[in-house]
Task: structure prediction
Amino acid sequence: MTPAETAALVVIDLQNDFCAGPTALARYPGDPVTLDAVATNTALAVDRARARGTEVIFVRFVGDAEHQGPSWRRRDQAQGKRPKCLEGTWGAEFHQVSPLPEERVVTKRACFDAFLGAGFEQHLLDRGIERLVFAGLYTDVCVDSTARTAFQKGFHVTVLTDCTTSLHLPDADILRFMAVVYGAHLTTHDHPQAWAPPAGEEDPCQGPRTPVSRAASA
Result:
């Protein structure tokens, strides 16, 4: 199998409540243009993955109260947070991307890590996936949580820096952290040939060699 065939593009939580509308805009501290660029670039990454024969896996979050554990509910009460991406609502729908019928959709129920979603890890093992290429939201929350587990379970990690943005931490800091701690390979959506570099040809501890840019490109 080629590197493209043993990699999977994992699209994390690209949903309306995280990308657009009043809920997303009230939470995200940066420029809303960034969220739009992330969504647009991720949609382009999905197109490129499909064209190259790289599997695309969609991960979705649902935050209904019945799925929340005691610690989650306590935090939300203390911080005045309201549930997001309620099942069956517009907020839970995918934003600018649509899974094809044959593509895997994994649901996380009030948790950050896709490995806690039913069937995610087993699907990767069954498909012979060796590298996870991450896009989606947010870099310092669900993307990082999933990348951390992926690294510990032996999967190689790539992060598409123009297909994600952070909620709490500076983008450059969390990307540098992921490169150093998880050996994450950092690249962009418009270089799919570099998503899964051959062994020995990546230098993950250096981080991005150019400033992170999310300007959408065709």
In short: The chain has one domain: 7-206. DSSP finds seven helices and six strands in the chain. Helices lie at 16-19, 21-27, 32-52, 70-79, 120-127, 139-152, 171-182. Residues 121 and 153 are 9 Å apart (CA to CA).
